[in-house]
Amino acid sequence: MIERKPQPAKAISTEALATGAELYPIFRRHVPLDGSISARVIAEVSAASGLSARQVRRLAAKFRANPVATSLAPTPRGPRIGSHRIADPVRAAIERLTHEIFLKKPPPSAALAAREIHGLLLAEDGEFRFSPGVVPSERTLIRLIGEISEPQRAKSSMGSKQRSAHEPHPGEYRSEGLLDLVQMDHTRADVILVDSTHREELARPWITLLVEVWTRGILGFYVSFGDPSIFRCGRAVANALLPKEPLLEELGVDVSYPMHGQFHRLHADHAAPHRAESFRRACLANGIDPDIRPRGPAHFGGHIERLIGTMVGRMCLLPGATGGNVTQRDGYDAGKAAAMTLAEFERWLLLQIAIYHNTPHKGLGGQCPAQAWKIAVSGHLPLVPACLDVEHLTRQFLPVRQRTVQAYGVQILHRRYWHPVLAHRIGQQITVYHDERTLQEVYAEIDGQFVVLPMVGHYPDVSEPEWEAERQRLRREGSAFQADGAQAATARYIEAARREVVAARQRTASSRQERKRREQEGVSHSPQTKGRIERAEVRWLPAADLPQDDWLKWRK
């Protein structure tokens, strides 16, 4: 069953309203609003208005239900808007074909769907074979498609983000106060960055943003070339919790960025890093409720989605901007125009955040996020605990692995780590946190504290992605060497070794059989005849005494 939009009533013309206004004084004077209407009243109204008694009774009923002049205006003529004179079998066939052809992903245009439906209804060798007289025109079919309700059309033919604007969202989504609700999401920036050494094209970075819903301030952010992960989500949350002054000083940016603090609820989408057990445990350990929003509809994250759209829109000012679609990049080489490094982009982003904080926001009634934050924090409790251990906090949001302590320590991806504190925990399972930016150490959680486990052996001081990339490069080189003759040579060597083994087995078996034959019989009741084999003496004759010695001569 197709849900259709409710059809509006026909508009009453000015002439009809004027007629109702003329009749209104008469009905208001003679027609009572309660009780019954006598025949005398009907006659008086009929004489004053010139209407028949039947018309007076009909208009009187409408007037008593709604005593205004509009009730007395003549009803517009013609069929009711939205009505169709279509036979029930044809209507059922149209709804079925509309489901199959139009209400799907991706949907065709209404005109194309109408033409397809019209042809299938009339096809002589088709399923329906209706006569042309009962099948509505293509224009009528387009009108029928246009009457489908927006929620049904959105649910059947749109993705979650697109259909959110076409579905009802009753109720209110709000924060209860400062630092009560924070939304987080990731996006790939619409700009290509370059490396800091050779200034050559690299890639588009990922940006993670956290918005504080009560003041609309950007509570935290994180920029990286890596895809969203538990590590990067943790970096962004830690950035939101901690003051920004050390970061601003390191980057050399002179802006006011007071937004930080321990918040209560974190809303994020249904991505795997947000649902990871280690990330949720780190949030709960810091008093944050990781309230992952329902799967699908994007309106639950409307504040962060709008903020991301605002920040990404400003990137069109940058060299190397890719634009939002292919049309904007037509004839433009974004990679060749790229000029900013990751650090330079972070400084630019901080300036844009400062601009955003000092721009009036419609959701705040025209106030700026910086102004709303200043008002909200006045008289507020300390934003973060005074005894907050920054190092402990940042390590809590690192990716985590469960490892059993061995005699050599713990092993992570072919690398071993050891600390004397592990000597008494051999055979015990512990929780190990690792920072993918370095291979030199990991952090074991023991008795509620982090113990640094240094690496055993010598490894370069590189990040884990760099190390894995180098390992993959070596594996690719090994595969190429195998394909370039090594594999065939190995096959030959294997076959030769197998032949050597088979020959050795045959020689060993033959030797064993020969030894068996040379061994004596075992002791028995029948005495063994002892003696020796008589061997005939060999007598050699001179060559001259041999008969027919011509076989020793050369023959021509």
UniProtKB/TrEMBL annotation:
<feature type="domain" description="Transposase-like Mu C-terminal">
    <location>
        <begin position="397"/>
        <end position="451"/>
    </location>
</feature>
<dbReference type="GO" id="GO:0003676">
    <property type="term" value="F:nucleic acid binding"/>
</dbReference>
<feature type="compositionally biased region" description="Basic and acidic residues">
    <location>
        <begin position="164"/>
        <end position="173"/>
    </location>
</feature>
<dbReference type="InterPro" id="IPR015378">
    <property type="entry name" value="Transposase-like_Mu_C"/>
</dbReference>
<dbReference type="InterPro" id="IPR012337">
    <property type="entry name" value="RNaseH-like_sf"/>
</dbReference>
<feature type="region of interest" description="Disordered">
    <location>
        <begin position="152"/>
        <end position="173"/>
    </location>
</feature>
<dbReference type="InterPro" id="IPR036397">
    <property type="entry name" value="RNaseH_sf"/>
</dbReference>
<protein>
    <submittedName>
        <fullName>Putative TniA-like transposition protein</fullName>
    </submittedName>
</protein>
<feature type="compositionally biased region" description="Basic and acidic residues">
    <location>
        <begin position="512"/>
        <end position="522"/>
    </location>
</feature>
<keyword id="KW-0614">Plasmid</keyword>
<feature type="region of interest" description="Disordered">
    <location>
        <begin position="504"/>
        <end position="536"/>
    </location>
</feature>
<dbReference type="Pfam" id="PF09299">
    <property type="entry name" value="Mu-transpos_C"/>
</dbReference>
